[in-house]
Structures are given as structure tokens and as C-alpha cells.
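Same chain as my last thread, 130 residues:
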Amino acid sequence: MDIEHRFDEPAKRVFMRVGETTTGAAVSRHIAGLAAGRPELAGWDWIQDVRESRGEVDNADIASVAEAFAAAPPGPCWTVFISPDPNLALWCKVMDAMFIGRLHRAVLTPEAAVQLLDSLRAATPAPSSS
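reply #2:
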């Protein structure tokens, strides 16, 4: 599986890179597994670098992640995707409706993802650690 992740405990962020050979179903299983092992991650901010991904994700994949995150403490929290795909912003709006308390954004670079979350967090309390 071509997925890497790391945790930034102080910032309560998960950084994940999805490679080109990874399917949407594999990504959703990976995320659900992380959330099952550490339920507090469902309330953390996530940065997902999908620039190498082929984008083979469907509604069922997204719905399974939304279900895995359903027990998250009340938001807001964010998932920021790193991708050059101009259509991802539209998918972010769809995902916003599928998740409770989680909002989705798309940016072009890892630096932009960190800057966006830093600015959002400056105006909003940090995610719960429960």
C-alpha cells in the first residue's frame, strides 16, 4: 500500500501522502483503521497530499471515512487536500455535507495547506483531544 502518514501531536494534525497505486477504498480503510486505533484522530485536522493519486475515489469510500469520523467531538476541524485538480474544490463541498463538524479545502502545495490550517486555527479553538 502506497500510503504514508505521520502525526503532529502538538498541532493535532495528521499528515498523509497517497501514492499513485493506492485506491480510494485502500485510503478509506487506512483512515478508518487509524481512527479506530486512536479515536481522537477523528477530531484532528488532516492534510492529505493526493498529488500522485489517480483519484479513484467514489462516494462509498468517502462515506466510510465519514462514518469512521462520526464519533468525533464537535468541530470545526478540517481536511485539506493538496492537489492540482481544479475539480477537487467541488468535491470538497460534497464532502462538507457528508461529514459532521469537518470542512474540506483544496490547495496546491504542502506549505499552503499548513498556512491555511494555521490561519483557520488562529480564528478557531484547537480540536478536542478527547
